[in-house]
Known about the structure:
- With 336 residues, the protein is of the alpha/beta class.
- Helices cover 36% and strands 24% of the residues.
- The strands form two sheets. Strands 1, 2, 3, 4, 5, 6, 7 and 16 form an eight-stranded mixed beta sheet that branches. An eight-stranded parallel beta sheet has the order 10-9-8-11-12-15-13-14.
- A hairpin with a 6-residue loop joins strand 3 (43-45) and strand 4.
- The mean pLDDT is 95.
Amino acid sequence: MEILIINQAEVIDLLPMTECIEVMADALKRLAEGDVILPLRPVMWLPEKVGALGMMPGYIGSQSVMGLKVVSVFPGNHGTEYDSHMGAVMLFETQHGRPLAIVDASEITALRTAAVSAVATRLLARPEASDLCILGAGVQARSHLTAMLAVRPIKRVRVWSRNHAHATQFATDESARHTIHVEVSESAHAAIEGADLICTTTAAAEPIVHGDWITDGAHINAVGSSVPFTRELDTATVVKARLFVDRRESTLSEAGDFLFPQREGAISENHIRGEIGELLLGKVTGRGSSTEITLFKSLGLAVEDIAAAYHIYNRAVAEKRGTWVELGGNRHANTR
């Protein structure tokens, strides 16, 4: 039995951002239609919470595929040669449970997270939104810039990071890559002021976004925090925004950006207006006015990883990419 190994460089080639956005929209619709089994992810934390191992299983019925992403999460890797998220997505078919592929998870995570934000932005941001603020200067900052450029007519980009050198390098690299000028802001406040599209992609444990900084009509993609005990947004930001999520159950269990205001009594579960998949299916309404602030709280879901990996696998097979290796031995070929 052979299995296909697909490395990071091949993931980049086989899943361009524009394709990934459509794959994510389809996956979120399948989730909202009930076509997906998606257990809450178990996370094993190391002592002092210096790092974690996250395990994200899922199943997509209509595609007859299931999978598991296993990823290490080490926020301290920001600014080093190592990604903060490293691991693999393993795909299986569901007739016999045969493993199909092992795919690099670092690049899938970078691409699918930003692509989901792009889906949310396409649905919720004002059509003319063009002033982009990115908080953070790492992998997700880079992928989010690419994603936002794909769905809105961006004219101005500002970046801020707690590490000014990282922000400066980001601005230099991304200005050249996208032929758009990226400005470095001296503070998060300066970066946010006047922006109508805000992406938070940091490892902050405490709020770096405050509600009174945000311009009426802005849309926010909150991406950086995916655990109950950290948040990037203060309570005022969440209270004043029309909130949408990737999945309610995950938000109520894992999203510090939601759970802190809830514990303070500032919001209830009813503050969640809907899931992105429900928006795509027309089950809930999105932005109510041009002055309303909209917020998408992203946690990242296994269905996104599995859908991305399955798309990559199919393209790799068609284009004869990746490396086939023997995994199960030859015993099934023997006559007994």
